[in-house]
Amino acid sequence: MAQIKLNLQLFSGEKTEKATPKKREETKKKGQVAKSVEINTAVILLSMFLFLLFGRQFLFDQFEHVMKDYLEHNLLKDISNQNASSVLSKIYMQILILIGPFLGVAFIAAIVANISQVGFMFSTEAINVKFSNLNPIQGFKKIYSLRAIVELVKSLLKITIVGAATFYIIWQSKQELLNLPFISIREVAETIYNLVVKSGIFASASLFILGVLDLFYQRFDFEKNIRMSKQDIKDEYKKSEGDPLIKSKIKQKQREIAMRRMMQEIPNADVIITNPTHYAVALKYDEEKRDAPFVIAKGVDFLALKIREIAKAHDIVMIENRPLARALYAQTDIGDEVPEEFFKAIAEILAYVYKLKRKI
């Protein structure tokens, strides 16, 4: 029977693994995130149409004021450079007051829509010019890619949604439209205004639903695009391990963990040998586990002070013996049994401690 040999290295390049936190961070720095532009558009439009709905009286009053002021004070003025400049400046200011709220609402809505999707993020890499994007071959690939098809479907859906929303509102308001020839100009303006606002709100809300669905797709597509191969993960790990900053952080974290563990062991000590201020060594003797007393904590200066404070809080006996404290600190590490040369001195200390605790 013929045997088929597979080279597993061929599969190591397949991007089947989820992206690591480091890869995600690098991708985010490049401005590549999973977000839906449709949600941004829908939120901006919806907020503006809601402003038109609730700020109708303000807008009508402001527009009426602009027209009245122009017709009463500016229409019959003699045209001169000074008059024209004054009139235009006044009109510009009134128009700014009229459209300023629109711009403010749109700006705030755009910020809220972006932050709600990707959080606070600023990247200049996304706006850098990339000449590779001008490659016609790459352009044809993009045209016939899955993403291009999805974008085409979204565009068709948007046109359909906006058209359907507008048709629905117009159909529901057909009687009001038929009455337009028989009502005043102000009522005509209000009717058209209400019709536009209703259509806009309905279409924007529908686009928002489409945007939510698009966001799910964008996140799925984003996760697929940032997948890594097993080899990528190995290379990243090797690179990170070789980074002095990463190594320093890892060692710092390990020291912090070891320090916390050491502090948690101090209440189990039988005795603390002190300098008395600069050195402190905590000893434990458990004849069932060890043949000799062993060190469970040690420290100098501030750390020695913390050891003494914990010992005092747990009523652990502290013995001042400067030479022994210095020697134990210099010759032992956490978990080490005390050297044989110190057996006699430590045995006397433990006997004294046990006597105090009435263990013998």
Walk me through this protein's architecture.
The chain is an alpha+beta fold. The protein has helices at residues 21-29, 37-54, 56-74, 81-118, 136-143, 146-172, 174-178, 185-225, 230-242, 244-265, 302-313, 322-331, 343-356; strands at 15-17, 228-229, 271-274, 279-284, 294-300, 317-320. The strands form two sheets. Strands 5-4-3-6 form a four-stranded mixed sheet, sandwiched between helices. Helix 2 packs antiparallel against helix 8, helix 3 packs antiparallel against helix 4 (81-118) and helix 6 (146-172) runs antiparallel to helix 8 (185-225). The longest helix has 41 residues, at 185-225. It is elongated and about 115 Å long. The termini are far apart. It holds the Pfam family Bac_export_2. Its main location: membrane. This is Flagellar biosynthetic protein FlhB.
Global Rg: 38 Å
Cα distance spanning the termini: 79 Å
What is the strand tally?
Answer: 6
Number of DSSP helices? 13
User: What order do the helices and strands follow?
Assistant: EHHHHHHHHEHHEEEHEHH
Class from secondary-structure proportions: alpha+beta
Taking all residues together, what is the mean pLDDT? 79
Q: What would you call the shape?
A: elongated
Q: Mind summarizing the main beta sheet?
A: 4 strands, mixed
The portion of residues assigned to helices is: 55-70%
Q: Spans with pLDDT under 50 lasting ≥5 residues? A: none
What attributes characterize this protein structure?
360 residues, alpha+beta, four-stranded mixed beta sheet, 6 strands
How are the elements arranged and paired?
Layout: E1 15-17, H1 21-29, H2 37-54, H3 56-74, H4 81-118, H5 136-143, H6 146-172, H7 174-178, H8 185-225, E2 228-229, H9 230-242, H10 244-265, E3 271-274, E4 279-284, E5 294-300, H11 302-313, E6 317-320, H12 322-331, H13 343-356
Parallel strand pairs: 3-6
Antiparallel strand pairs: 1-2, 3-4, 4-5
Helix pairs in contact: 2-4, 2-8, 3-4, 6-8
Protein name: Flagellar biosynthetic protein FlhB
Keywords: Bacterial flagellum biogenesis, Bacterial flagellum protein export, Cell membrane, Cell projection, Cilium, Flagellum, Membrane, Protein transport, Transmembrane, Transmembrane helix, Transport
InterPro entries: FlhB, T3SS_substrate_exporter, T3SS_substrate_exporter_C
